[in-house]
Design brief:
Blueprint (H helix, E strand, L loop, with lengths): L5 H14 L8 E5 L5 H10 L6 E5 L12 E5 L7 H21 L3 E7 L4 H4 L6 E7 L2 E9 L24
Parallel strand pairs: 1-2, 3-4
Antiparallel strand pairs: 4-6, 5-6
C-alpha cells in the first residue's frame, strides 16, 4: 500500500457521494405469510437504506396480485426434507403454476429452491436454471417468463386423425 494516494481516494469518494441519487419508490412489494418474519425483513431493509422504498405485508403468495403490467417475482417457496413435507410441496407447486398463469402474464417469476422437482411439478416452461447453494444444500434459481395465453404448440392435424373431433351422428 506504499503507492496508496489518500487524496485521490478521498476525491473519488467525494465524487461518488455527489453522484448518489436519493432513494425513491421502487415499485417493489414483499410479502410473507409468516407475520413474525416481517420485522426481520423491515430491519434488513432499514440497514440497506430501503425501508421507505419497499412495501411489506403479511400475505400468502397465492393471494398476491400484480400491481403493474410487467415485473419480476422472486420467491423461495418452502423445500422440505421430510417425506410428508415433500408430498405437500408436490401439491403446492402446480398451484403456483396455475396462480402465475391466471394472474401474472407479462411477468417473469424466479423461484429459489432446494427442491429440484419444482421445474417438473410447476407445469411451466423454465427458461433458465442457475445452480446455487444454500449453505451446503444444492439449490436452483428457476426463471420462468409468463406469457399471455398458452405457450403450448398445437399439434398439426393429419389426414385420418379424428382425435378430438366429435361424431356428427
Amino acid at each position: 500500500m506504499r503507492e496508496f494516494d489518500a487524496l485521490s481516494w478521498e476525491a473519488l469518494l467525494s465524487e461518488a457521494r455527489a453522484a448518489e441519487l436519493p432513494v425513491r419508490d421502487l415499485a417493489i412489494k414483499g410479502s410473507d405469510r409468516a407475520r413474525n418474519m416481517l420485522p426481520v425483513a423491515r430491519a434488513n431493509l432499514q440497514r440497506a437504506g430501503l425501508a421507505d422504498a419497499i412495501e411489506l405485508q403479511a400475505q400468502d403468495i397465492l393471494e398476491a396480485r400484480p400491481f403493474a403490467d410487467s415485473g419480476f417475482i422472486v420467491t423461495n417457496p418452502p423445500y422440505g426434507v421430510r417425506m410428508d413435507e415433500q408430498d405437500a410441496l408436490a401439491e403446492l407447486y402446480p398451484q403456483l403454476g396455475d396462480w402465475l398463469k391466471a394472474h401474472f402474464a407479462g411477468w417473469t417469476a424466479h423461484f429459489f429452491t432446494g427442491d429440484l422437482r419444482l421445474s417438473d411439478l410447476i407445469h411451466l416452461s423454465v427458461k433458465r436454471r442457475t445452480p446455487l447453494f444454500n449453505g451446503s444444500l444444492p439449490c436452483r434459481l428457476f426463471a420462468i417468463p409468463m406469457v399471455a395465453g398458452s405457450a403450448r404448440r398445437e399439434k398439426p392435424v393429419t389426414d385420418g386423425d379424428t382425435s378430438g373431433v366429435a361424431d356428427a351422428e
